Recover the amino acids of this structure.
């Protein structure tokens, strides 16, 4: 869900309010997911807000023991932030992928 922040006709601005950005390998497992959809997350773990990140072992699909990690409203990622993080992940892990050329290269820089 998005909210209109500015209705400037030249540069309208929107912001997500309820989101889940999930990164996974095609026909494989999750890498990470940012979201604010767990309604009891902040209350259950004593955080100020529900913005958090789930991290996974991309080889097995198991959620890592330190997950979920609280992100907070101050570090609430944009979709662009998540794509940059995923691009960095790809270059770090490219040689470990079975067919790295089967994945599109993101050139966001």
């Amino acid at each position: 869900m998005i909210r209109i922040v500015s209705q400037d006709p030249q540069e309208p601005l929107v912001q997500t309010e309820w989101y889940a950005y999930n990164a996974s390998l095609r026909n494989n497992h999750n890498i990470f997911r940012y979201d604010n959809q767990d309604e009891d997350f902040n209350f259950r773990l004593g955080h100020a807000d529900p913005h958090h990140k789930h991290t996974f072992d991309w080889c097995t699909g198991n959620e890592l023991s330190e997950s979920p990690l609280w992100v907070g409203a101050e570090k609430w990622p944009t979709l662009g932030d998540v794509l940059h993080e995923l691009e960095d992940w790809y270059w770090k892990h490219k040689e470990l992928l079975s067919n790295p050329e089967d994945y599109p290269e993101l050139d966001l820089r």
Summary: The beta strands are 2-6, 13-16, 20-24, 30-35, 52-55, 69-70. The first helix runs from residue 41 to 45. The mean pLDDT is 82. Residues 34 and 66 are 14 Å apart (CA to CA).
